[in-house]
Design brief:
The complex is a heterotrimer of chains A (87), B (135) and C (201). With 135 residues, chain B is mostly helical. Chain B contains 4 helices and 1 strand. Chain C is mainly alpha-helical. Helices cover 62% and strands 10% of the residues of chain C. Classes of the chains: A mainly alpha (87), B mainly alpha (135), C mainly alpha (201). At the A-B interface, helix 1, helix 2 and helix 3 of A face helix 1, helix 2 and helix 3 of B. Chain B: InterPro entries: PhaG_MnhG_YufB. Chain B: Keywords: Membrane, Transmembrane, Transmembrane helix.
């Protein structure tokens, strides 16, 4: 289990770093939004792994919250982008 | 004996789930334009979360958490396509795409026709069709 | 599509807004009740009844236009469909992973228009949802009047690939019609099949 934990940690760290690079590079706000979405999902993946290793489900609500925040965020921003164009 | 088998399965699921996150990260960086990057962002994650939640259920070895885990996954299933559609639509409309990566674009003609119709309807209105405002 | 549009569509000829009847809302109510049970991790009858009462209250307070169901639901085919769906999700996820790692910036894609057979909003939504979750495709735009979906499909290298993607979409629609389409749609599907087999034979 210890090895699995290390592998998962390394993979998630790399994934997070890649998402942050995209977040910094852009080039447009929409790209940043989906990068944030990916970052949130990586965080929820990390929460899931923590729950699995320590055998509890206390973090499940944070996983749900991350999904909702990502959803509301990306929908709001994409509405805003289209509205600016049509205004 | 059974404990070890379940642990091994859960471990495999965890590694695969993390691989999906990693794929999303790599895709975000390597795909050529916004519309392709969206694929990397939405799709592997759905499976990734399913695998991680199944690993969780396996490690807890309890059936009572399964409904709430399914609920968490269903929420993801419901919201992921909507946000993908909204971002994709906004991206297409504000032309955040590289034409050269598209083999065919059957929407372009429709959008052009709609735009022309709009132009005829309000000729006096100055064009607000700027696409470079948000970069 | 704005909410006003949906509410306008739900009006009848006289222009009085239509509300869903209890029968039409039954699947929604049962679903909400099960969510309540799952959240409490307690499926005892008392808890479920309380959940049902809360869902009834919510449905009464926040009125929505009715979702028109066809009245049929083939549960066996639905289970089969879930299996196929999960398999597709797994396959598509690995495909996207492969493309991200080995193809990267050279990946080409296409925007493909697919005209669906059905006219029901619910089915169009379902097809769109399944498509966005499954193989390298998602919806860029929907034309509701003609039930046309405009998809962005990943890894399309030629027009043949685009045709293949179109056929896959129609296949998914066919499966969904067989699960929950109306009788008319099923009949249309049957005539279409027989004409195709005559052409081939």
């Amino acid at each position: 289990m210890h090895i699995v934990l290390w592998i998962c940690g390394v993979m998630l760290s790399i994934a997070g770093a890649l998402a942050i690079i995209r977040l910094a590079k852009g080039p447009s706000i929409l790209e940043r939004v989906i990068a944030t979405d990916v970052l949130l999902l990586i965080v929820s993946a990390a929460l899931c792994i923590e729950m699995t290793v320590n055998r509890h489900i206390d973090n499940l609500i944070f996983v749900l919250l991350a999904a909702i925040v990502g959803f509301v965020g990306s929908v709001t921003v994409s509405r805003f982008v289209t509205d600016r164009r049509n205004a | 004996m059974w404990d070890t088998i379940i642990d091994v399965i859960a471990g495999t699921f965890m590694i695969l789930g993390c691989m999906m996150s990693l794929a999303a990260g790599i895709g975000m960086l390597r795909f050529p334009d916004l519309l392709s990057r969206l694929h990397a962002a939405t799709k592997p994650q759905v499976l990734g979360l399913l695998l991680l939640l199944s690993a969780l259920a396996l490690e807890l070895r309890s059936w009572s958490v399964v409904p709430v885990l399914i609920l968490a996954w269903l929420l993801q299933l419901l919201t992921a396509p909507i946000s993908a559609h909204m971002v994709g639509r906004a991206g297409y409309r504000t032309r955040h795409l590289k034409r050269e990566t598209l083999v065919t674009d059957e929407l372009a003609a429709v959008v052009a026709a709609a735009g022309e119709r709009e132009d005829h309807e309000n000729v006096t209105k100055p064009s607000t069709d700027r696409t470079d405002f948000i970069d | 599509m704005s909410q006003d549009q949906r509410l306008n569509d739900a009006k009848d000829e006289q222009g009085t807004p239509q509300h869903a009847t209890l029968r039409q809302e039954l699947p929604l109510l049962v679903g909400m009740m099960l969510v309540w049970g799952a959240l409490w991790q307690d499926f005892a009858p008392g808890n479920l009844v309380f959940g049902l009462l809360i869902s009834l209250l919510l449905v009464r307070v926040f009125r929505l236009p009715p979702v028109i169901l066809s009245g049929r639901f083939n549960i066996l085919r639905a289970i089969g469909f879930i299996g196929i769906f999960l398999w597709d999700v797994v396959r598509a996820s690995f495909e996207v992973m492969y493309l991200a790692i080995f193809r990267g910036p050279r990946t080409t894609s296409a925007v493909v228009a697919v005209e669906l057979r059905t006219e029901s909003d619910l089915l169009v939504t379902f097809v769109g949802h399944v498509l966005t979750l499954v193989p390298g495709s998602y919806i860029v735009e929907v034309d509701r009047r003609t039930s046309t979906l405009y998809l962005h499909v990943l890894n399309v290298n030629s027009t043949q690939d685009a045709e293949k993607a179109r056929a896959a979409v129609l296949k998914i629609e066919e499966r969904l019609i067989r699960i929950m389409g109306t009788k008319e749609e099923l009949a249309a599907l049957a005539t279409e099949k027989s004409s195709v087999s005559k052409e081939e034979g």
